[in-house]
Specification:
By secondary structure, the chain is an alpha/beta fold. It has helices at 16-32, 55-64, 74-79, 95-104, 119-132, 146-156, 197-212, 331-345, 353-372, and strands at residues 3-11, 36-37, 43-51, 70-71, 83-88, 108-111, 136-138, 163-171, 216-224, 229-231, 237-239, 245-252, 257-263, 274-280, 283-287, 292-296, 320-321, 376-377. Helix 4 links the parallel strand 5 and strand 6. The chain starts with a strand and ends in a 6-residue tail after the last strand. The structure holds nicotinamide-adenine-dinucleotide.
Length: 383
């Protein structure tokens, strides 16, 4: 079958996200399935060029996966017209200037979140991309998680009646790095390197809340650095200058109250690493990464508060499991396919730089709320 080749520069491919989710689980998986059907009957075929700082590491990854194109010279890769798309999964602090260069070179840009470290920089990238006429997108992978897809299905089907509240619990224990290695990179815990759980997670919560429920109108947040001293990848002790927990209350249009705890200093007593409980007048749901459970108003028990007696009801057993009813592919891959169709066939792609900028705006507002000890309203932004 005829191929429509599309040259993609992958920057940050030696990192956790760049390698596992974007290279292996998305783009190589698309190649393994024979490419992606395009409108003209051909197959969209990603041609990959790996970019990074360490040539030996790039060569090793390329060889492992049968790839031949890699370079440590980003400018040269951007100047090469066989590349239509620039993708960025570098550390956040390096992103803005690389994307700016990609836009100037006339490349379409897809990127990990957060789009930039601040709102001003994010909006500037959105403006530059629009002015240069390049297509642009930001990863919003949580929307494609099976659990959240089922939750969206329930919202669209009117299951909840009037939605009252959303309670989100995200997190797990990230080891300090002294007596056991930390399972996240050390830059996550240094503000000066673009770290912090608020800038990491609030962009996710922004699109989850906005696209499943309603736009966020205000935020009140309290943040903390619970573990102030950590040990890095090289075994050196360092001071954690960034927040490792964020406790946020998000007011949504229409009166829904969402409260989400995000923490890298919490031990998991949950079914999944993130769970959202949604309560509505007609029913409630608890959704995780994969599973979603519901309780309808007609099946709601009537607990009576009596601390003198042991609990008599199996509360968890009173919920029903929502069936899959469809096949769920890897969320990063699903969004990559949408972006490739956007570039090749012009299929609309709603998760653009402006959407990414709104996520950064919420993170910035959350940090301001915590710093100033007050509720911060979210202003509508445009390019
Ligand atoms: N969508 C998600 O669920 C999700 C999850 C985790 C991280 N992320 C985002 O992905 C990005 C990468 O995170 P990660 O966890 O993969 O980090 P990582 O530390 O594992 O990888 C970072 C990559 O950037 C490169 N890099 C490091 N320092 C650099 C520098 N000074 N200059 C240029 N490149 C440098 C590294 O070589 C590596 O390839 C971050 O922006 C993060 O916010 C997204």
């Amino acid at each position: 079958m005829e191929r429509t080749s599309i040259g993609i520069i992958l920057n940050g491919v030696t990192g956790r996200m760049g390698y596992r989710q974007h290279l292996v689980r998305s783009l190589l998986a698309i190649r393994e399935q024979g490419g992606l059907p395009a409108r003209d009957g051909s197959r969209i075929w990603p041609e990959l060029t790996l970019v990074g700082r360490n040539e030996a590491k790039l060569a090793e990854i390329a060889t492992r996966h049968g790839l031949t194109s890699y370079t440590t010279d980003l400018d040269a890769a951007l100047a090469d017209d066989s590349h239509q798309i620039y993708f960025d999964a570098q550390v956040t602090a390096q992103r803005e200037k690389a994307i700016r260069a990609a836009i100037e070179a006339g490349r379409h840009v897809y990127t990990e979140k957060p789009l930039a470290e601040g709102l001003a920089g994010s909006l500037e990238l959105a403006r530059l991309a629009a002015a240069r006429g390049v297509k642009n997108g930001v990863v919003q992978d949580k929307l494609f998680l099976p659990g959240l897809r089922k939750l969206k299905r329930l919202v669209d089907g009117g299951f909840f009646g009037r939605i009252l509240s959303v309670r989100g619990e995200f997190g797990y224990w990230v080891f300090e790095g002294d007596w056991q290695d930390a399972q996240r990179p050390s830059w996550n815990y240094r503000a000066e390197d673009g770290g912090g759980i608020t800038v990491d997670m609030f962009p996710h919560w922004h699109y989850v809340l906005e696209q499943i429920f309603a736009p966020v109108t205000a935020v009140t947040a309290h943040i903390a650095t619970h573990i102030p001293d950590r040990v890095d990848e090289a075994g050196r002790a360092y001071r954690a200058t960034a927040d490792d927990a964020a406790y946020g209350i998000f007011e949504l249009a229409g009166g829904i109250v969402a409260q989400i705890n995000s923490s890298w200093a919490v031990r998991v007593y949950r079914n999944e690493l993130v769970e959202f409980q949604v309560d509505g007048t007609h029913g409630s749901a608890v959704a995780g990464l994969r599973e979603c459970r519901i309780q309808h108003r007609g099946a709601t028990p009537m607990p009576v508060w009596n601390p003198d007696l042991p609990a008599t009801e199996d509360f968890r057993g009173q919920w029903q499991t929502v069936p899959d009813n469809e096949d769920f592919d890897n969320g990063f891959k699903v969004q990559w396919e949408a972006f490739l169709r956007h570039v090749v066939d012009g299929v609309p792609f709603p998760w653009d730089f402006l959407a990414g900028a709104r996520g950064v705006q919420l993170a910035e507002a959350g940090l301001r709320s915590a710093r100033e000890g007050r509720r911060v309203e979210i202003e509508e932004i445009t390019r």
